[in-house]
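call fold(seq) -> tokens
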Amino acid sequence: MKININQINFNIIPDDFKFIEEKIPIVFLHGFTGSSEDWTFIFDKLPEKYSPLAIDLIGHGLSDSPENPNFYTCSAIINQLDLIFNFLTIKKLILCGYSMGGRAALSYCIRYPQKIVAAILESTTAGITDYTLKKEKVISDFLLAEKIRKEGIKSFIDDWMNNSLFQSLKKLPDFENIKNKKYKNNAIGLSNSLIGFTTGLMPDYWKKLNLLNFPILLISGNLDEKYTTIAKEMKLKLPDAEHKIANQCGHNVHLEKPDVFVKFVKEFLKKIEREYL
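ret:
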């Protein structure tokens, strides 16, 4: 379904989502170039007491892709998510985000910890601390943003999926189908996402992780050494976190190893039901 938030249309699945008081919403946020459809595989595998919901972040999927990059900043995305939750009358939720969606989820958790029951962060970082590295990331992402606008979606996606992060993903039998779905994104939307929500401009949340007192599940693939190392470092700073590593898996655990991802999530939900709910 589409909902209008401050003159921007956001796409949400399932179409018939309604907040039910007795159920706990689990909101899924996709990664860069992804969409809400990436999460449908898990919807019918969750226990009955949970109500799944996936959102097309601004500039992705069937949500709008405004020209103004100010709509894509970290602060803007946090506000958009909160307005969506308010529109749906969701007061408490579990947030699950992958990569860019994980950064959005973590950012929301930092701003509104009182609204979070728990969080699941897959292949996610708490930001970049070093100023020089932040500057380099901004320059790199701005150049990529320009490339998208000049060369178009197909050329960019083809190059993007050659990134070393996705080498194991490319071995999947349905990889071409995964890539074809990414072609449906909007060049302006992806370009502005890189400009507004680059990790280089995202706040550094490392010193705020200790403030998150709710349960957090960190997930990474063992072939993705960079984000597995980051997850290990985040776990040390979070008061109540566990880290699950999927074997023979790269950056995108939920697409490469969906059964393993579901297993990790269901085990985590059982734990928080037993200890917190």
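The first strand starts at residue 2 and ends at 5.
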